[in-house]
């Protein structure tokens, strides 16, 4: 059960839940308390690790509406805005990352990047992605058993793909992976966070400068040659590239590993998928809904007083829109705790909603489809080498996942 704690002195808050809440015994379930929140406290008070308080919004309809409410901001430079992952107030103020901006600044960055992340572009990359996946599967096959699927498949495939799309030298992938891990770790100190942000930003600025002298057919080259009348600095452009790099890599790594585990734990569904490859797109969307790995990535702050589900939210108060809870809402999904390939409603919020919906979702879907279909075609008897409850999970990361996944086949 989630700990109940006393609100900070003088806050006007009584006994509240500590947040984030830990998942239960099953790694595929969101915290059990989310069900209580949806039924009894759809907008509730919670206490973060640093002693600050936030509002938690749990129901699908309220989360969806809140993510497009212009009275609510995600601007990372706003005093009091929570930090992604539920670690408290953001010590860095990463406003130069477009995912932490409001319109109209956000729209300028997104319009620059959007043409390179359409479904048409993602599908055009599919044959090349297939080659990347096949190479990783060759490495997996030649590694001996048990083999760590995270190290041999889940990490190298997204890393290679996003480096290719952005124009980042793949030889530098360990550098950006290590800095991104610091930024996603809820236990990172403020100094470590600042250092990781600065190091990544400096690295990206260097790449932009190199692309001006040595252009390529990639996103960084297009950013480096953005129209001057947009008024974007190299720091702005580097922040946009950095956001894509982090999101496209870390989220897909965790989905590949945890999704593989979930599929092996649902053998009847997996048998259907092996028999009918046309079901894989539906399987990917259901995995995205079912696993809720990015549940802690939607912190916001109220710009003015407003009401959500009858609860008064004051200007300057922080909020978390719990997409993982929304994706298990009984009012939207029949038997939401079940993994169902044939679920008719696919309006999940795993990629967010509205203006800040994940830019790389099309690329992610194609990657996941290719990885899962290829993995279970090549290794039809693949299974975890240890019991699910003995694996090490990322309970202290803003993105949930598994650290290692030893498999046999």
UniProtKB/TrEMBL annotation:
Signal peptide: none annotated. It comes from the Bacteria. GO terms for molecular function: heme binding; iron ion binding; monooxygenase activity; oxidoreductase activity, acting on paired donors, with incorporation or reduction of molecular oxygen. InterPro entries: Cyt_P450 (IPR001128), Cyt_P450_B (IPR002397), Cyt_P450_CS (IPR017972), Cyt_P450_sf (IPR036396). Pfam families: p450. Keywords: Heme, Iron, Metal-binding, Monooxygenase, Oxidoreductase. Belongs to the cytochrome P450 family. PANTHER family: CYTOCHROME P450 YJIB-RELATED, P450, PUTATIVE (EUROFUNG)-RELATED. This is Pentalenic acid synthase.
